[in-house]
Amino acid sequence: MIQLPEGSWWDWDVVEWNAGRLRLGAGSDLSYHHGLELVFSDPLFVTCPAAFQDPTFREPTPEEVRVVSRQTGEIPALVVAFEADAGGPEPAAGLIAAGGLEIVQGTVFRYGRPSPAPGERLAPWVRPPEA
Fold this sequence. Notes:
Elements: E1 11-18, E2 21-27, E3 33-41, E4 45-47, E5 51-58, H1 62-72, E6 78-85, E7 92-98, E8 100-109, E9 121-122
Parallel strand pairs: 8-9
Antiparallel strand pairs: 1-2, 1-5, 2-3, 3-8, 4-7, 5-6, 6-7
């Protein structure tokens, strides 16, 4: 099961998703920045809302592991399940199978700003302002 570091990780969204990586960003308010990322390497199977709040991460059920293995042809190194508020009347379910997971803390700005300080980054879609 995922053990998140201490912090206010209420708001979540998909920051980046490609064949090699799924990056989820979290913070208390995603308007300007986020401070936590779950970086899944080599995502094989993803069922995840684009934006959600207050997830409860848990071990996948045997049936969820079977669903993933039927879809991918293998049992991946990592399978993570969660429920979260995605704005609907019922909690949304998330299921992610990947090669690995890295938990990264640090400020990631969601708007252009010159010269982030050490340990700070700009979100992948943000272009730094021209000097």
